[in-house]
Design a protein that fits this description.
Helix 3 crosses helix 5 (142-158). The strands form 2 sheets. This protein has an 8-stranded parallel β-barrel, surrounded by 5 helices. It has 9 helices and 11 strands. Helix 2 links the parallel strand 2 and strand 3. It is α/β, with parallel strands linked by helices. The chain has a single domain, classed as Alpha-Beta Barrel (TIM Barrel), CATH 3.20.20.30. It is globular.
């Protein structure tokens, strides 16, 4: 079995959403031995949403009630950065197309500097059209917008002066004084499990952020990524894979540990666990985190 570097989702939403608890939770998780800390992203939760949650939403319950309360992901990571010294800090994932790339680059650069170069930038498309509507961004063409945003971030992080002329953004040549601590830039990870998302990982990203699935499904999706990387002249072995596990009510620590062992046997070296759906409060989440770390 491959050694697994285990991470943990920070208390950011639902019953665990307590801004005052983030720093203490992050410090405790690092002391336990967790090697990375993660946030997700949710813009809003409409009463009558345009789309149901893809993980099982229905007309009666269109999305998990935990998603109603959501702390900003970058603010959450900023609080964690100040309380930790070794754990990497990641987003899995930002709903990337709804952000301005210039403002996003500034925030992420600042966070990478504040953390001493520990940031992993996870980007995705999201699933809720309403989030695009309220931010004034068209739902159509969101994949192309993500592709261009990745290009803009890399340009702003590596060129000086830097500018961009594209379909979605025009940025005049500008002096960029603020540079990330990581060179050439923080790793850009991409989430998603559709064929287009998988090909985007192989063609343009530094890694993949999958959600836990049967190993045969993960194996097939990784084959698509590897083929796309090879076609683009890239080495698939250079791409990271950080798997997200979302245990639900009824799953035990032993169940979670067993599933993680399966992906480690598949060669995954990084994973993190989101305890928001099984923990009653922040203290309970830390208790489960200790048990889980010992089991894994």
């Amino acid at each position: 079995m491959t050694a697994l570097r285990l991470g943990l989702a920070l208390p950011q939403y639902g019953k665990l959403a307590d801004p005052a608890a983030i720093a203490g939770f992050a410090a405790a998780a690092e002391r336990i031995g967790y090697s990375s800390l993660w946030t997700g992203d949710r813009v809003l939760t409409p009463v009558d949403p345009s789309d149901y949650y893809p993980g099982g939403g229905t007309a009666e319950q269109p999305y998990p009630p935990e998603l109603v309360t959501f702390i900003d992901p970058i603010v959450t990571l900023t609080a964690a950065a100040g309380a930790t010294s070794t754990a990497r800090l990641g987003t899995s994932t930002l709903v990337a197309p709804v952000y301005s790339p210039v403002l996003l680059a500034r925030s992420l650069t600042s966070l990478d500097l504040l953390s001493g170069g520990r940031l992993d930038v996870g980007l995705g498309l999201g699933w809720l059209r309403d989030e695009y509507t309220v931010t004034g961004v068209p739902w159509a063409g969101r994949g192309a917008r993500l592709d261009e945003l990745i290009d803009v971030l890399r340009t702003l992080w590596t060129a000086d002066p830097a500018g961009h002329e594209g379909e979605h953004w025009q940025i005049p040549q500008s002096r960029i004084g603020l540079r990330p601590a990581q060179r050439p830039h923080p790793p850009i990870m991409v989430g998603g499990m559709s064929e287009r998302a998988l090909r985007r990982v192989g063609q343009a990203a530094d890694g993949w952020l999958p959600t836990l699935a049967p190993v045969e499904h993960l194996r097939g999706m990784w084959s698509t990524i590897s083929a796309a990387a090879t076609e683009a002249g890239r080495d698939p072995a250079s791409l990271r894979r950080v798997l997200r596990a979302n245990p639900r009510a009824g799953m035990t620590v032993a169940d979670i540990a067993g599933r993680l062992k399966q992906v480690a046997d598949e060669g995954y070296t990084e994973a993190f666990v989101d305890l928001h759906y099984v923990a009653d409060n922040v203290a309970h989440a830390l208790e489960l985190a200790e048990e889980l770390y010992a089991a894994v």
